[in-house]
Write a structure and sequence with these properties.
With 261 residues, the protein is α/β, with parallel strands linked by helices. The chain has nine helices and eleven strands. The longest helix has 18 residues. The model has no long low-confidence stretch (mean pLDDT 98).
């Protein structure tokens, strides 16, 4: 059992309080054309509005594949969890058949990477609030280079083919970190435009050119690769910074992006 690591800090630990908060963020407008997304993973008071705009659009799926960065440094370079995940809203099982169908060329089963990692966990209450009867596949990336992102996407695509699952890929990422509000918005715009272009090589060039502090740039590239496989296009549905609710001299940016066919 993977128990919650950030309940009570990133989001409320009491079910009633959590549901009350999620009701403010989610207005279901499920769009069957959405195959993947980028959703932020900060404390809900900061990024919940933007995450909610994304999750409001996600269609029902048999399995949500959540790809997140590794903030802790624990575990294997590309680690998939097979445990059942618990939040204040209940338990969600990992899709063991889907995980078993992954070729495991780069993805390996490992729980250590997930024990204290918050970036996938914070997506779960949104999914639990908006959907029923689904499973998850949580992949944590410590390696985030372009080739690795392509390899992870290929494993997801192969498992999807083998199982016939209806899936949605969720890239969990915040944007730039710890800049002035104005500078954060300026730099985020460069990266967001690269994502919207659907040009993955260009996207990585911009990441490296401006030394971007986008924590989940690899998971975003996984979502882009998967979306390109589905002939989907990217759309920015919301953008915000922590400066909208806190001081503006030291902010984090949050982009909500969906990929539609």
């Amino acid at each position: 059992m993977r128990r919650p690591a950030v309940a009570g800090s990133f989001y409320p630990s009491r079910k009633e309080e959590l549901e009350k908060m999620l009701r403010k963020f989610i207005e279901p407008k499920k769009d069957e054309r959405v195959v993947a997304c980028v959703s932020p993973h900060a404390g809900y008071i900061y990024s919940g509005k933007t995450a909610g705009k994304v999750h409001s659009l996600l269609p029902d799926a048999e399995t949500f594949v959540i790809v997140c960065p590794n903030h802790t440094g624990y575990g294997l370079p590309i680690a998939v969890s097979t445990q059942t995940w618990r939040t204040p809203l209940g338990e969600v099982e990992s899709d063991l058949e889907f995980i078993g169908a992954m070729p495991k060329r780069i993805v390996a089963e490992d729980e250590l990477a997930h024990i204290e990692e918050h970036s996938a966990e914070v997506q779960l209450p949104f999914l639990q609030f908006a959907h029923e009867d689904f499973r998850i596949v949580v992949i944590c990336m410590r390696l985030q280079d372009e080739d690795t992102a392509k390899d992870v996407a290929d494993e997801i695509i192969e498992a999807e083919k083998r199982t016939g699952r209806r899936i949605v890929v969720i890239a969990s990422s915040d944007m730039h970190h710890y800049l002035s509000d104005a500078e954060c918005r300026k730099r985020d715009r460069i990266i967001i435009d690269a994502i919207l272009s659907m040009d993955i090589a260009k996207y990585y060039t911009k990441i490296y050119e401006i030394d971007a502090s986008v924590c989940g740039y690899g998971p975003i590239a996984v979502a882009m690769n998967y979306a390109k496989h589905k002939n989907a296009k990217a759309e920015l549905v919301d953008y915000s910074t922590s400066g909208e609710v806190a001081e503006k001299n030291f902010v984090v940016g949050y982009a909500g992006i969906v990929f539609r066919t």
